[in-house]
Amino acid sequence: MSNVRLRPVTEAELPLLTEILAELDGNEPIPVEDIATAWREMRRFPDYTCYLAESGGEIVGTLSMIVFPVLTVPAQSEAIVEAVVIRRSHRGRGLGRAMMRTAIELASAKGAYKLALSSNLRRLDAHRFYEGMGFTRHGVSFSTEVASRHG
User: Fold this and answer.
1) Per-residue model confidence as pLDDT tens digits over 30-76
2) How far apart are the first and last CA of the chain?
3) Are 83 and 48 within 8 A, CB to CB?
4) Domain limits at 32?
5) Which candidate, 68, 100, 67, places its Cα nearest to that of 85?
6) Pairing relation of β-strands 58-69 and 77-86?
7) Which of 92, 102, 112, 133 is 20 to 30 A from 79, alpha carbon to alpha carbon?
8) Which residues pair with 51 in a beta bridge?
């Protein structure tokens, strides 16, 4: 089994984070300044963290996780992960599975009763991956575009 450690990304590592995030869909990297702005905004929330995943002394991926209290299950919290990426050069080695197991353990240690995520409908390989880890499809996710608060 692969061993993966999650640790918070530092400001100096934001250029690397930008490169890793671009590997999610093969898009052009988001400008580092934009990532830095979002990262600083995330830090305003008490338990919203962007992590780098390390294995064998290398940065192999990233994910962000927020843990927050919920009203429907009193005295419990829920965790949501997003922006889950294993670097292309490290895929197929069990690192994604190890990274998600580590995220589940971290969520549990922070008092979350469940860990949730959403995945774009076109990411069929990712769906198989999550289902293979024991995630189940739960409910239906909806979204809508909203006006930017900056524009």
Assistant:
1) 999 999 999 999 999 999 999 999 999 999 999 999 999 999 888 88
2) 47
3) no
4) 5-132
5) 100
6) antiparallel
7) 92
8) 8, 63
CATH number of the domain residue 66 falls in? 3.40.630.30
Task: List, for residues 136-146, the tens digit of each pLDDT value.
Answer: 988 888 888 88
Hey, which bits of the chain come out as E strands? Answer: 5-8, 48-55, 58-69, 77-86, 112-116
Query: Token pair for residue 34?
Result: 């934009």
Q: Are 36 and 46 in contact, with CB atoms under 8 Å apart?
A: no
Gap between the Cα atoms of 134 and 1, Å rounded: 17
And the tokens for 65? Answer: 């996780």
Would 140 be classed as within a structural domain?
Answer: no
Q: What domain count does the chain have? A: 1
The rounded distance, in Å, linking the Cα atoms of 70 and 5 is: 27
139 located within any domain:
no
Q: Which residue has the tokens 């589940």?
A: 104
Q: Are 124 and 86 in contact (CB under 8 A)?
A: no
